[in-house]
């Protein structure tokens, strides 16, 4: 069975304050809040999805904001750095913008590319890189001009407690191809043009600890429901123990933990975020799966009010 993922579908992380989370990812980074729902397994907590204008696979950053949760420690068994890709010629703009919000980025180099690295309000490690690949994001918000907007994911740095085994699963299960080594990293490439480059430190990493500011899982793309079933079969045949196929409303999902400790998900591209909201009004209403609708009043009363707003720094 020949299956190759096109790349990252989404990445899900933990945060604390939901409004501060919205302020950072929608207000500062300019991503669109494409879905406001709940953690289906813990309905007292939001599940917030940010992405490009339509929430395209490869652009979706999601969060479980747990108020008063502990701060996590980034380490082995996690995504260590989340890479967003921006258009060529825009890195100076982003450096100036981040500084204007009292975020001090640093520059780093891997594989002859310059990265602008920084952390969000919970300590999650992020970076921006310029690349030609990827469709321009037509969503523009706050002080970010349309030609500087984040396109989606450039990729990620995976921190493995067993780098050799994680690299094996990337190549031999997920279908990525090794394209080089540089400065203590191996690089793997998926077939898509966004969310497609994965870097792994060659040295095994010490275990991290989950909590605010850390990634819960990384999800890989399956093009449709039929291919998703094939992925489930392939992962099982390779000796892993994936969950059953789970309906997450906006995609179907399976989960398994690879041998380097990182929780992998495989998610379908369809049906997408417009299945229950009009494209022009994504993220405006709290959306609940039908089995929670009878508890809407209770759920809404328990959640802090949040809104997407232009930040003071963009009102000048």
TrEMBL record:
SUPFAM superfamilies: Glyoxalase/Bleomycin resistance protein/Dihydroxybiphenyl dioxygenase. Keywords: Dioxygenase, Oxidoreductase. GO terms for molecular function: dioxygenase activity. The keyword Oxidoreductase applies. PROSITE patterns: VOC. CDD domains: PcpA_C_like. The keyword Ligase does not apply. Residues 7-131, 152-269 form the VOC domain. Gene3D superfamilies: 2,3-Dihydroxybiphenyl 1,2-Dioxygenase, domain 1. PANTHER family: RING-CLEAVING DIOXYGENASE MHQE-RELATED. This is Ring-cleaving dioxygenase.
